[in-house]
Specification:
two-stranded antiparallel ribbon, single chain, alpha+beta, 2 helices, 87 residues, 3-stranded antiparallel β-sheet, 5 strands, 26% strand
């Protein structure tokens, strides 16, 4: 999943004191890979799954609480805080 779309979320990683901005596509790909048997490289670019304007409305503009979209048969939710859940 390509992550070069200019939309970033803050990622606290393993809970250390450092918070690092990461491309939203990378964060989503890592979350999907962690929750499934897929690898990040198996996924298309994020805009193949969700409109980037919807993603920006959640994480960049804060106009929405979350956005839900399917990725390779799994339901993904991205929240305003940059949290990703995969079902």
């Amino acid at each position: 999943m390509s992550s070069n779309h200019g939309i970033y979320v803050l990622d606290d990683g393993d809970g250390d004191e450092w918070v690092t901005p990461r491309p939203v596509g990378e964060v989503i790909a890592d979350a999907v890979a962690a929750a499934t048997d897929l690898e990040p490289g198996d996924l298309d670019a994020i805009d193949a799954y969700v409109d980037l304007d919807e993603v920006a409305a959640v994480v960049a503009e804060g106009d929405r609480e979350s956005v839900d979209f399917p990725v390779e048969g799994h339901q993904v939710t991205l929240t305003r805080e940059g949290d990703v859940s995969v079902a």
